[in-house]
Amino acid sequence: MKMRRPDRRQLQSGFTLLEMVISLALLLILSGAILGGMATMQKNYRSNEIRTILNGQMRASMELMAQEVGQAGLPPSGMASNSVYTGTGASGAVASVTNASAITANATLPTTVTIATNPPASVQLNQVVIADTGTNAEVITILGPSGSPTNQFSAIFQKNHAANFSLYPHGVYPQGITFQNAPAFPAGTSAYSNTSLIAFGDITGTGNLTIVEYVCPTATTTGTITDSSGVQWGPLTRTEYVYPFTATPTSATLLGLVRVATAPSGTPADGCRFDYNVFYAAGWYMVTSVNVTIVAESQTNDPQTKAPVVITKSFMNIQPRNIVNAYTIYNYSMNLSTPTTPTAEFLSIPTAVVTQIGTFTQ
């Protein structure tokens, strides 16, 4: 029997044109779905990245504020450049005690010595200061004015000291957080809002008298922009001044775009602002807590919404521990059977600080 061989064309046949078209169509559909999913994932990743970066910047800014608010009011003890009395020597040396030669090894201790004539306004009667450094350091109370003329201030010393030793602040600056162009505070506790935060003291913990100023943008701030909705955005800045304030201050932009507050200083605002709880009595105001509110937007658009990312954050009840201590001292003094004003522990705003920043509410 003769077997029929298969047709060679049948053995070598492949996909038909219709099958190829269907296969290519399915491949295109599958590839489009995969590429679309990858594009969506990339947009989600970029969107989350923008939010994460903005969140991190806001958190870092607020944590820095909280840290520096906590240091406000701390006097920078132990540094000659921050002495209570500023000397006039060519080298900038401090000549704190004008009659220090009377305190010698031959003196009968304790002894009362005139320490200054016509001291600066920052020096107060009954102010407590630290005299000298090292093993000779001691805490003294400024007495006077007494003697002739009556503008001489004196102190009782328990130790001997070399000539022209320095006096350093001791106590607290109850107004370590202060305000410019603020209304007069009524007696008792009141609330106050502002677009700036000014704090001074040993802010950086380095023993230097430092001023830090955080400023929210206003409508006239350089770099302010207006979006399509008519909302204004601008930079939140931090400026640092270090005593003796002769060097150029250090300025930095913490956040590039934060919302400009629509309300004026002194009233609650809906943008970048600082809210204060203020206690005022006996000529002293003390900020016992600070709230920070920031509305910030990213400087790049979200790839999904095609608009900037907007985030609102608040830090509530930040307490300046040194000023809270001053508030506690005041309450303790006033609750004694014979109330006393604790001026011995309270330090006035240094003249150099007022000169650098401007007029403060006192």
Q: Describe it for me?
A:
There is one protein chain. With 362 residues, the protein is of the alpha+beta class. The chain has two domains: 51-75 and 172-353, no CATH class; 80-169, no CATH class. Helices cover 22% and strands 30% of the residues. It is built from four helices and 16 strands. The strands form four sheets. Strands 7, 9, 10, 11, 12 and 13 form a six-stranded antiparallel beta sheet that branches. A four-stranded antiparallel beta sheet has the order 8-14-15-16. The radius of gyration is 34 Å and the shape is elongated. Residues 79-96 and 98-102 have low confidence and may be disordered.
Number of strands: 16
How many independent structural domains?
A: 2
Structural class: alpha+beta
Relative strand content: 25-35%
Order of helices and strands: HHEEEEEEEEEEEEEEEEHH
| Overall mean confidence score, pLDDT | 78
Give the N-to-C terminal Cα separation: 125 Å
| Radius of gyration based on Cα positions | 34 Å
Helix content: 10-25%
Please describe the biggest sheet, giving its number of strands, its sense, and whether it closes into a barrel.
6 strands, antiparallel
Please count the helical segments: 4
Low-confidence stretches: 79-96, 98-102
Q: Which descriptor suits the 3D outline?
A: elongated
List keywords for this structure.
single chain; alpha+beta; 4 helices; 22% helix; 362 residues; 16 strands; elongated
List the helices and strands and how they pair.
Blueprint: H1 8-11, H2 17-71, E1 111-117, E2 128-131, E3 138-141, E4 143-146, E5 152-157, E6 167-169, E7 177-178, E8 188-194, E9 196-201, E10 210-215, E11 225-226, E12 232-242, E13 250-259, E14 273-281, E15 284-301, E16 308-318, H3 321-334, H4 351-357
Antiparallel strand pairs: 1-5, 2-3, 2-6, 4-5, 7-9, 8-14, 9-10, 10-12, 11-12, 12-13, 14-15, 15-16
